[in-house]
Design goal:
heterodimer, A: alpha/beta, Heat Shock Protein 90, 2 domains, seven-stranded mixed beta sheet, five-stranded antiparallel beta sheet, 12 strands, disordered N terminus, B: alpha/beta
Chain lengths: 309, 119
């Protein structure tokens, strides 16, 4: 009985590392342990670290999935559905092993709250599944606050090569803490909509996005994402909402604000069955954008998505 | 399904014409053509038309979308799920807006029951 329980337990250790040597040694040991147990292994880490692991594994790395997390996980909100569940669901029997490094030095202050929430939500997304996800954290270059959060979002921490149980583990606290208010931006172009204006608000968004320089597939993505968020407001957010669009720090930002409350923390991160009718709108927004920030409480919900210009 | 019918947003014909969808049979071929926008407002008539396509489906059905301006993800989902439930054959989606193949690829990669003829 106890063996079965261990086999089904979700493992989510944070790996605190200080040097390239420590990183390589620890990650290679994790991968090799999986290979020895014939577990499928995926590695999704920033490019330079991907090279370290790939080079270190040599021929042993053949057939493993390697993803540059700065691309696949640029928007932390798509890592669970696209990267982690994408791989785990493709290997439904036996344990699956993944190295996922979603937080690197250089993640911006705007990105970080979504990154921390992503790390927290991994625990909800994989509870009771035979999956192990190792999340490396660069102790030498990341802020103290980031490292402290990692102890809250991970049930165990590997530091100095030793695994310890994290006494601070409380992932829901991180989801709540980074549910930060998103105050209205005064210089944004705004458009209020109801069911009768879904078409007009989409056209307005497309016009603004084009004016800021989006073209081709990215412009289509912006239009699609606005259509999904405004539709959500009409269906779930009190029947109407307000779209705001502006540009900051080289990105186009689209925001939809309504009176609804999002109660499911995993909304938009649970891959639907192919024949399922709903549940793809927010996921589409996560898929196409570089970042999604969300705030929800009893007064309403605000979703912002960012597209690089 | 014998004659095209228009559907407006809630509140009836007083709503802006651009929120409308027209769906009707394809002359000479099994299937439908749609003109206008497929959104949550017009989705009921889109889904009804697709149900009819599935009911009459033989080997190949056609969905002609050259005059469709937009389909939201729910509209593309209705199309994909209709195709998934077919016992055999396929649906040829003709000249859809360019985001339709993108959404299909995103959520139903390798779906063989739909063939897209691009615009």
């Amino acid at each position: 009985m106890s063996t079965a329980a261990v086999d089904e337990a979700f493992g989510h250790p944070a790996l605190f590392y200080r040097t390239r040597e420590e990183y390589t040694e620890q990650t290679l040991a994790f991968v090799r342990e999986g290979l020895a147990a014939e577990e499928p292994v995926a590695v999704a880490v920033p490019g330079p670290n991907l090279d370290l692991i790939r080079t270190g594994l040599g021929a042993d790395g053949e057939g493993l999935l390697f993803l540059d997390m700065t691309e696949a996980g640029r928007n932390p909100g798509r890592i669970i559905p696209r990267v982690l569940r994408g791989f785990a669901d493709a290997h439904p029997t036996g344990r699956v092993r993944i190295i996922g490094e979603p937080i690197w030095a250089g993640r911006s202050a705007v990105e970080y709250p979504a990154c921390a929430q992503h790390e927290a939500l991994i625990n909800a997304a994989f509870a009771g599944r035979a999956v192990t996800i190792l999340c490396p954290y660069d102790e030498a270059r990341l802020d103290e606050e980031v490292l402290a959060d990692a102890r809250v979002t991970h049930p165990t921490v590997i530091t100095g090569g030793r695994t310890e149980v994290s006494a601070a583990y409380d992932w829901e606290a991180v989801v709540a803490r980074y549910n930060e208010e998103l105050p209205a931006v005064p210089h944004a172009a705004v458009f209020s909509f109801g069911a009768g204006e879904l078409s007009a608000v989409r056209a307005f968004a497309a016009g603004e996005a084009a004016r800021w320089g989006l073209t081709g597939p990215r412009l289509i993505d912006a239009e699609l994402a606005v259509a999904e968020l405004t539709t959500n407001s009409v269906i779930h957010g009190g029947g109407r909402g307000t779209l705001a669009i502006w540009s900051e720090a080289g990105q186009l930002v689209c925001e939809v604000r309504d009176a609804g409350r999002l109660t499911d923390p995993l909304a938009g991160r649970r891959p639907p069955e192919p024949g399922q009718l709903g549940g793809r709108g927010l996921m589409l927004v996560h898929y196409v954008s570089d970042l999604v920030r969300l705030h929800t409480d009893d007064h309403g919900t605000t979703v912002r998505f960012y597209l690089g210009l | 399904m014998e004659t095209p019918h228009a559907v407006d947003g809630p509140g009836g014909p007083a709503r802006p014409a651009r929120a409308a969808l027209e769906v009707g049979p394809l002359p000479g071929r099994p299937g439908i053509r749609a003109r206008g926008e497929i959104s949550v407002v017009t989705r009921p008539s889109w889904e009804a038309a697709l149900t009819e396509v599935a009911r009459r489906h033989g080997e190949v059905s056609y969905v002609e979308l050259s005059e469709a301006e937009f389909l939201d993800v729910g509209g593309v989902t209705a199309l994909a799920v209709t195709a998934l439930r077919l016992p055999a054959g396929r649906i040829v989606v003709e000249h859809p807006p360019p985001h339709v193949p993108r959404v299909l690829e995103m959520f139903w990669p390798g779906l063989r029951r739909i063939e897209v003829v691009p615009r």
